[in-house]
Amino acid sequence: MTKQALVVQGGWDGHAPAEAVDLFVPFLREHDFEVVVEASLEAYADSALMASTDLVVQCWTMGEILADELHGLRDAVAAGTGLAGWHGGIVDSFRMATDYLQLVGAQFAAHPGGIVDHAVTLVPSRADHPIVEGLSDFSLRSEQYWLLADDLNDVLATTTIAPGPDDPWHAPVTSPAVWTRPWGSGRVFVCAPGHQLADLELPPVRTIIERGLLWAAR
């Protein structure tokens, strides 16, 4: 049965939003999604479009969202539309929109050191979740997100930021790296890694995102 995916890309160019979503549009089409790609947040305010959408894939770093756009997105997810994304395209979007932060369950705070070597560790008790089943811990050299999050998230993987000798924090800080989140009748999926296009092509990252897109869809 064909489903509909709305892919919304834009915001800060540093995350190459158009090129990033292009990596996953063919995958969605191969899995029987009709894909609509928009470069404007106005799509969220289109109630008819949102009601017919089974999955929203958002890649929009920073920027601002209007009240009717945000309400349209929240209402659609609550009614069963899935929401999915990676890195700043979903957890560093619309920093001033607190209702958006509540929806996705985390907010970017920092990426200490910029591009650094770090590990992503699967949560052992969630190893049987279909998004991470059969995968192992992995390492990458990229931005490591320090996130502010809440415990409604079902955390599937974490990353731990160790303090350096000159850092003002004095103990390791563990942030969620991959999680899902219920929202009404809808599902939210977030993968924090994905700063560079090369990150999105790493087998474990790509596998997690692809599985997450399918899992989140209505």
Could you please describe the fold and organization of this structure?
With 218 residues, this protein is α/β, with parallel strands linked by helices. It has one domain (3-216): Rossmann fold, CATH 3.40.50.880. The chain contains 8 helices and 11 strands. The chain has helices spanning 17-22, 25-30, 47-51, 67-78, 88-91, 98-104, 197-200, 203-216; strands at 3-11, 33-38, 55-61, 82-86, 106-110, 115-122, 138-143, 146-149, 154-161, 173-183, 186-191. The strands form 2 sheets. Strands 2-1-3-4-11-10-9-6-7 form a 9-stranded mixed β-sheet. α4 links the parallel β3 (55-61) and β4 (82-86). The radius of gyration is 16 Å and the shape is globular. The termini are close together. 44% of the residues are buried.
Which key phrases capture this entry?
218 residues; alpha/beta; Rossmann fold; nine-stranded mixed beta sheet; two-stranded antiparallel ribbon; 8 helices; 11 strands
Q: Biggest sheet, in brief?
A: 9 strands, mixed
- Ranges where pLDDT stays below 50 over 5 or more residues in a row are none
What is the CATH fold-level name? Rossmann fold
Q: How helical, in percent, are the residues?
A: 25-40%
Number of self-contained structural domains: 1
Any idea what the CATH superfamily is called? Class I glutamine amidotransferase (GATase) domain
Spatial order of the strands forming the largest sheet: 2-1-3-4-11-10-9-6-7
Q: Structural class, from secondary structure content?
A: alpha/beta
Topology order in helix (H) and strand (E) letters: EHHEHEHEHHEEEEEEEHH
Q: Over all CA atoms, what is the radius of gyration?
A: 16 Å
Instruction: Tell me the quaternary state.
Output: single chain
What is the total tally of β strands? 11
